[in-house]
Amino acid sequence: xxxxxxxxxxxxxxxxxxxxxxxxxxxxxxxxxxxxxxxxxxxxxxxxxxxxxxxxxxxxxxxxxxxxxxxxxxxxxxxxxxxxxxxxxxxxxxxxxxxxxxxxxxxxxxxxxxxxxxxxxxxxxxxxxxxxxxxxxxxxxxxxxxxxxxxxxxxxxxxxxxxxxxxxxxxxxxxxxxxxxxxxxxxxxxxxxxxxxxxxxxxxxxxxxxxxxxxxxxxxxxxxxxxxxxxxxxxxxxxxxxxxxxxxxxxxxxxxxxxxxxxxxxxxxxxxxxxxxxxxxxxxxxxxxxxxxxxxxxxxxxxxxxxxxxxxxxxxxxxxxxxxxxxxxxxxxxxxxxxxxxxxxxxxxxxxxxxxxxxxxxxxxxxxxxxxxxxxxxxxxxxxxxxxxxxxxxxxxxxxxxxxxxxxxxxxxxxxxxxxxxxxxxxxxxxxxxxxxxxxxxxxxxxxxxxxxxxxxxxxxxxxxxxxxxxxxxxxxxxxxxxxxxxxxxxxxxxxxxxxxxxxxxxxxxxxxxxxxxxxxxxxxxxxxxxxxxxxxxxxxxxxxxxxxxxxxxxxxxxxxxxxxxxxxxxxxxxxxxxxxxxxxxxxxxxxxxxxxxxxxxxxxxxxxxxxxxxxxxxxxxxxxxxxxxxxxxxxxxxxxxxxxxxxxxxxxxxxxxxxxxxxxxxxxxxxxxxxxxxxxxxxxxxxxxxxxxxxxxxx
Length: 700
Description:
Pfam families: DEAD (PF00270), Helicase_C_2 (PF13307). One of its GO terms (molecular function) is DNA helicase activity. Belongs to the helicase family. DinG subfamily. It is an enzyme of class 5 (isomerase). The chain has 700 residues and is of the alpha/beta class. Helix content is 46%, strand content 12%. A seven-stranded parallel sheet has the order 3-4-2-5-10-1-11, sandwiched between helices. A seven-stranded parallel sheet has the order 14-15-13-16-17-12-18, sandwiched between helices. Helix 3 packs parallel to helix 4, helix 14 packs antiparallel against helix 15 and helix 23 packs across helix 24. The protein is globular and about 80 Å long.
């Protein structure tokens, strides 16, 4: 139960959400916005009625306060815990390090006590003191992968981790600055499957992960991530504390994050490592059987091309079946937990964890091909990057074709859910993402709310009818139509498979020159980004940064500090750049961000929808493009004073039938197809930028 309840709180009614929001905004030195108020009231209504809510809140709305204030009020009033889930570490840190501390102090007096909060991550993110004290078992699968220098570096990092273990109070990896490599961290951490459990672990009383979970069960607000939310939904044993309200921020990434958490991989090296984990715990004949099965899998995978598997090749099916059966034999030999010393128990737990993962993945791979293509739950593919700069042997992957059923049964059916992001209403409607989340395609009509509705409706006989939701777009305080231009280069030829054409490169150079640098280039591939960087460095006098030249965070910081700089890159820049001011006045999109045709999950989802009579392209590919395009265009306006141009150099946005859907998904900039208009606006902005007041510059 969150925090101790004061006598005063038990006897008095709490202030309303509107009053609390006003106190919160004043305390943090902000300005109350109409969209923020509408969102807070809608969240409060959802809490009262139990009806799920999707809220699109544009940049600058102040959506964090809009959902935190009613959520905290509910947690304090009902003495319960509310879960807030984010997709990115940046937002997670913003909530825990900035928003919630300030909000807790602001609401202490009106609520009668200071609200409490905590962050909760997966077990792998916390230091394992048992590993620290006992020493990590050998990681035989890594042998031979590192040269002497790398091994020495990892040794130094592990020594530093041991020293840090006596200093840290949380064991949270993110608190270690500078960080360490993944190989080093694995020496002092365990997964949930590898953990002995607090009751059996000799240092269970000092377990950082268990302490984090215990703390999470005693606070008002628990901040977590979509991956842990997915794990909580996937497992029978709950990971998150008991809750009946969850807020999902950055909800546009929910489906991808849940899909990633539910994806499994099978490799020959993993089978070999699991065999060695068994070591002397089981008889050699049984473990050798698994080792041979892994070797057979490696031989088969080496002969198969990378890509999606619509049918299971006979040789591969046989190899995976042999792995499955051999892993089952090892699990039988390992037996259940026994009364043994800690060292033996640890070795057995690690072996069982590794073999269980191999077995469960093999079972899932074989079962994935049982149904016809339209009704298969999973998609299977082979990846093979032996020719990349960091080669890995071939591997098998299996991922869910859809996660709506999981979310419907394990999230929406259990808790009132608020989903929010700056990008949810694709094509001006919420139904596209609602289907992916597992909600009914049509929202529930919202009745007139007089503030007295408190009773949640009785459960309906039909499971789908029981899921009621509403959608709300509260807009943005930014005047996109006056402060931004959407330039679509209709005159350019449609993009081809050969990368950037000469005409497109000329267009990019002309726009960047007009802008005086100040450009974020969002490209569909690293090859295109590098080609553009090479050309611009030859043609223009500005500093051209390209993703991969340094860490992304370093490049973004340099881009923000030096106004006449350009930053070019791919996917992570579409959503990860927050640079207000004159450093960013031009966003270039080289082509519409459709998923790659050979993307196994997207292509399988598209085919499954078409097999059922739906429009796979619009449902999957166009939705993917709309989300990314909206996020990319949103990089331009990060404050109310920002001005600039979003230039889409893909003529299909103007000519294709789906163009209207995509345009309706991005902020309502003033549109033009005239390159001279775009260049002139950028030239005026560049001229005004050095001493700019940012309130008088006209774009058109």
